[in-house]
Design a protein that fits this description.
single chain; 141 residues; mainly alpha; 7 helices; globular
């Protein structure tokens, strides 16, 4: 087998990982609302100490376990104010896409994106193109 090429062993690993992820989603589904309510409080609790990876992880989780609108609004309200980097804004965009929340004409995130300077927009696009994680890409269209 050529290095870097998928083979029977890697296919088995991917199959097992997919099955484990599906089992985890089934296990979390009954408590999804409570989980997202809890996660929505984290940015306000941590304030300036919030790590950018937190929103990225929330975006990944939202792909498998979509949050309710109240949790998304809570996360956006707090996170957009501190989202001064293209990486943070990219995570928020993917979070919205994975939550299957359409853009709001005058929404919090939309206003932040509209206010970006051209160089920051380019950096944001590059971040989105290089995103490592699941994305409901149809939501970007």
């Amino acid at each position: 087998q050529e290095l870097g090429k998928p083979g029977p062993a890697t296919e088995g690993i991917f199959k097992d990982a997919r099955a484990a992820a599906e089992a985890l989603v089934r296990h979390l589904q009954p408590c999804a609302q409570a989980l997202w309510d809890y996660l929505a409080q984290v940015p306000a609790a941590l304030g300036e100490f919030l790590q950018a990876q937190f929103v990225h992880d929330c975006a990944d989780l939202a792909y498998f376990l979509p949050p309710h609108q109240g949790a998304i609004e809570g996360l956006l309200h707090v996170c957009v104010g501190g989202a001064d980097s293209p990486a943070a804004l990219a995570s928020l965009c993917v979070l919205m896409a994975n939550a299957r929340m359409p853009p709001a004409p005058c929404g919090t995130l939309e206003r932040a994106l509209a206010a970006l300077q051209p160089d920051a927009r380019l950096a944001l696009c590059k971040r989105l193109e290089a995103w490592r994680g699941p994305v409901h890409a149809a939501e970007f269209e």
